[in-house]
Protein: DNA polymerase IV
Organism: Flavobacterium suzhouense
Amino acid sequence: METPEEPILQRKIIHVDMDAFYASVEQLDNPELRGKAIAVGGGESRGVVSAASYEARKFGVRSAMSGFLAKKKCPHLIFVRPRFDRYRQVSQQIREIFHEYTDLVEPLSLDEAYLDVTVNKKGNPSATMIAKEIRQKILEKTGLTASAGISINKFIAKVASDYNKPNGQKTVNPDEVLEFLENLAIGKFYGVGKVTEEKMYQLGIFTGADLKQKSIEYLTEHFGKSGAYYYYVVRGIHNGQVKPDRTVKSVGTEHTFFENLVSEVFMLEKLTLIADELERRLKKKKIAGKTVTLKIKYSDFTVQTRSKTLPYFISDKSLIIETVKELLYQEKPKDSVRLLGISLNNLNTEESGVKKPVAVQLKFEF
């Protein structure tokens, strides 16, 4: 039995998405890179592309692509090492601008966020004008461009922000929502990846209008729990609120290496450095966790994870690396390693918001 359609909530939501953020920061800081095809991360023979400039995207270079393939697609591509401290610095400047308008800001990453401006600090009734002002302020303060989507909920705002990229914005007014979604290519729906897109094609679903013809039972049968999500969003129903205090579910860090690692000794050396960085992040956020996960990506791009849950919360690097070492030596790596990562889950922020006691490694001065 189909759930009755709910009235579309008249919130005013903006999704701001920086344009090729990491690559744009590199071009901003280094004038010699401006107007050129660059990739942050990767490397001609090693590594994975973290971000690509629009000049590189014209040749088909995309994030998560191997450096080898990226160079093959764009022979004149310039690889640049990532500088995450710098990206975080610029991201903080951008968030300060957001908070001039509303405290209902939900960051998704360093380069994008949702803003609820239904009621805002400027008393401006036009979300479209607010988005325009924010984009202009970002440009003036950082020298970077941003795109924005404006609509009645997070889903449509997210889809709309990609509509006029780069350096543009798209407003989907309440009376335009259903037509907008019906005409939208299925691959443009947020949450529909390449695999799901191909499956929908096989089922004769190419646009929002095609998706809307399918019952909730049909979609659930073919897509599981996601089926209900697709059923409602194509009807403009998505009631997720902008949550500035989203509970962190996981804290982690990972490194991709320019030369593959073949020895556990070298891997442990790198993991110690990663644990140092993870500890700094945990201490800064005042977070600890029980479940330690080791991530290993091999030279053939296959990924393996190994986890262990402890009976107490930890955040100290010595306790983290002690557990990681145990996970590393569980079994011999099956190939050379291109990426290692450590993450902490089952955090002390997840239950009732009350932080629980943390186990610490006692250190004595001699």
Remarks:
- DSSP finds 13 helices and 13 strands in the chain.
- The chain has three domains: 13-17+87-233, 20-84, 251-359.
